[in-house]
Amino acid sequence: MKRTEYCGLLRPEHIGTQQICSGWVLTKRDMGGIIFIDLRDREGVLQVVVDEGKVSADEFSLIERLRLQSVVSIKGTVRERDEETINLKIATGTIELAADKIELISQADSLPYSIDDGSKVREELRLKYRFLDIRRPELYNNLKFRYKVQKAASDYLDNNGFLYVETPMLTKSTPEGARDYLVPSRVNPGTFYALPQSPQIFKQLLMVGGVDKYYQVARCFRDEDLRADRQPEFTQVDMEMSFVEQEDILNHLEKMFKYIYKETTGKEIHYDFPRLTWQEAMDVYGSDKPDIRFELPIVDVTDIAKKCSFSVFKKVAQSGGYVRAICVTGQADFTRSTIENLTEKAMGYGAKGMAWIAYKQNGEIYSILTKYFTEDEMKELLDAVKAKPGDFILFCADKLDVVRRTLGGLRLDLGDMLGLRRKNDYKFLFVIDFPQFEYSEAENRYVATHHPFTMPYPEDLQYLTTDPGRVRAQAYDVVLNGIELGSGSIRIHDRRVQEKMFEALGFDKKTIDERFGFMVNAFRYGTPPHGGFAFGLDRFVMLMVGADSLRDIIAFPKIKDASCPLTGAPDFVDKAQLDVLGLTEAVQAEENSALSEQKKEKEITIDVENIANLACLYLTDEDKISYAEDMNSIIAFADTITRVDTSNIKAKEHLIPISNVFHDDEVIIHNVERDELLAASPTKTDGYITVPRVVEN
Hints:
32% helix, single chain, CATH 2.40.50.140, Gyrase A, domain 2, 5-stranded mixed barrel, BirA Bifunctional Protein, domain 2
């Protein structure tokens, strides 16, 4: 037996018992004849005492030579620590294991970095040695919490009559949504499977099949650009129900999230999840995923702006644009630099500028706008935003999407600036009644806001093909602290409605038959009304543990370019494998194309001579060749910088932690007499040191 108990689970009640503990050597302290080891496993740390007189000479010598992070198994007796060695910061801090027998299981090589300093190490290095990174308690605890969330979700769904059903991983590529990851078929050359972006179609077919209540902890794949809260492969908790309406599903979701929260944190949520329509969320918060931990609502003042003489406001209001404002309570004394910073942010969101009013405590109104508003108009404006003396009001005037984006962004910036986005405060809400379609400028057509299987409201069906922008979807999102956790909808169960939906999306009959024929056909044989939901397990856990990136709660994540630093995936495969799949020629053509592009890049001619002339330098022919090579190298290096993963790096932070490698300056004061200084001077006049004139009259 290599272990009788985990290191971190031994307690005072084990005192006097013989135990075998196994794990990794975290620290080692040689006190001369006695060596203290901190032994760590998944449950925590245990102090082990190796006394030279209590173990064999070979065993003691082994411990002396032992490298950190080596794996050992130690048999000994649990005893109480001496009072001066008690460590109340750890669960085992009052006990220790007195070693009787030691077995070296695996000697560790020198480490590429110190695991205990892992959070300060460059992330790409940690991901290359992810198996070491997982030994950090922070990361392990994140993985442990992730499992608790997954189990709690499964327990709730199991207890409420849902049946766990697995759906295919190799399926058919369908349009809409993100790009698919494709898998070539050996048996059917030239054809491809797609890895599922979600189990959407299959879970609807399960409803047609009479499963009634389905769920799955599903692996999903999307070939899209990565960021802190996005990975190419991810996990979602997926569910579907038959014979339900929207409210039935929302009630289940609220109960499920409250259950998960209680099971994983031990705390309860006592409030009902608010419901906001998409329109309300966009108008009041400037976002379809609002953070409701704080107020700062957006207020429409367009009608008031129409009456003023401020040309910017008036022109926008009269041309169909919008003027909206945010009143920031108690911040009338914002500094000039703060206001300039907010203005820069507003322009970064697409606004042309930012107007503002400082409503001072004494009732004074400090703003350029006072020139353009009458006293009554100004009072009406302040009343509209519910401003009081001491408040600061900021404005944006532009097209609706610009106003929403700008004030929505500024609202979050103000929340961060004023400390209103409290990390340990969790505020859930539902956003409902999304638009059925959104117009894609790139594709010059309407696309589904969620997916093409969402049921519109019955009263809006008449606009499907005549006025798609007017159609509301029976769709809903769950939002937590300004982050979308997941989405769902009531699905289309009527074949004729589904065909109309495809028509509205611009699919011809041939495309519908090729891509979705199997699903439309299934709807011919009796389809119950149904709806469902899916939430991102990874994203939810990230929020709950306060992590900055999904990479902190996934065991083996990908980096920015969707590669794996640990395994080197994606990678090239043998020609024999390509031959079997009939892809050799296609890959060869791609490689030739890539080589051609590389050749073109290498052929970039740098006009060194012109650069030299501009810099007033004389270069020999040999210099020109050498400098051209150097500059090409710099350009090539600059290109590699664009591929560095900075998604988890905050603005104004360095990719690599900075540490001071210089000694502190030592100030030495020499008291030198006047005569001594004059004696050492090369030239002097009338008792003063003479220096050259550097400024002419």
